[in-house]
Amino acid sequence: MSEQLTLYLHKASPYSEKIELALAEANAPHKACQIDLLNKPEWFADKVNSVGKVPVVTYGGPNVDPDDPSPLSVKIAESNVILEFLADVYPESGLLPKDPVLRAKVRFFVNAVTKHIEEPCTAFVQGREPYDNALNGIEFIQRLLEEGRDFAVGDHYTIADACISPLLARLKIVTETDLGKFPVGMGYKLGEELKGHKYAKFMKYVQRILERPSLKQTHDKEFVIAFFKIIYTERVQ
After folding, report:
1. Are 117 and 69 in contact (CB under 8 A)?
2. Which of 32, 65, 117, 216 is most buried (CB neighbours < 10 A)?
3. pLDDT tens per residue across span 70-121
C-alpha cells in the first residue's frame, strides 16, 4: 500500500494545477482539499503551511481527514519542489527521465518557464508591464522546443510539461476574454500577435498540450474565469 498523499490546492492557482497534472499523469492515489484563498481556514496555517500558500502536499502518516492533518505526515510546499518529489515517488510515471542529460534539460526548461513565461505573463496580467516581455519569453521557450516532438523535453510527458501547462491554459483565457488589469483590449491584441507565423511552433505545442487528457481532467476554465473576474476588477481604459 502506498503512503497517504493529500494535496491542498486552489482550482484557480496555476501552481496547484501543476501538481494536479503530475498526480493525474502518475495515476497517483491521493486526496484533494480545496482551500479558499480569500478566506483561509485557521487550521491551514497552523497545521499545513505557516505561510498560508498553496499548493502543499502531506505525505505519509495516518490516513486522516484533510482538515485535520496529522503531525506525523511530512508537509511539502513550493510547486516545483513538489513536482520533483512526485517524480521521485512515482519513478515509473516518467515525470523525470532516467537519462541524466534529459533530466538536466527538464530542470532547465522548468527554470526557464518560471523566468521567461510565468514572471512576464503575470506582470502583464496584473497590469505592471506591457506584454512585450511575455512575447520575448515565448520566443525563448519556443527555441527550446524541438521540431517533431510532442513534449517539452524528449518523447514523454514530464514535469516540464506540467510546469508550463497551467500557464498556457490561463494565457488562452486572457487572450480570449481580455480579463486582467492591463488596458482594455490588450489581451485580445496579444492573442492576435500569437497567431502570427513567428510563434507557430510554440502555438502548435500549446494546442497539443491543451488537448492532453490530464489537463482536461484538472483544468476548471469556468472557475478560473470567475476568479479572475473577482480579482481583476480594476481596469485601465
Report:
1. no
2. 117
3. 999 999 999 999 999 999 999 999 999 999 999 999 999 999 999 999 999 9
Q: Report whether 224 contacts 170 (CB < 8 A).
A: yes
Q: Which of 15, 33, 7 is nearest to 224 (CA)?
A: 15
Instruction: For residue range 124-166, list pLDDT tens digits in order.
Output: 999 999 999 999 999 999 999 999 999 999 999 999 999 999 9
CA distances (Å), 184 to each of 29, 173, 188, 225, in order?
43, 15, 9, 16
Report CA 142 to chain centroid distance, whole Å: 18
- C-alpha cell belonging to residue 35: 482551500
Per DSSP, what are the bridge partners of residue 74? Answer: 59
Beta-strand (E) ranges in 10-62? Answer: 31-34, 56-59
What is d(CA 67, CA 48) in angstroms, rounded to the nearest whole number? 9
Strand partners, 32: 7
Distance separating alpha carbons of residues 106 and 113, to the nearest angstrom? 11
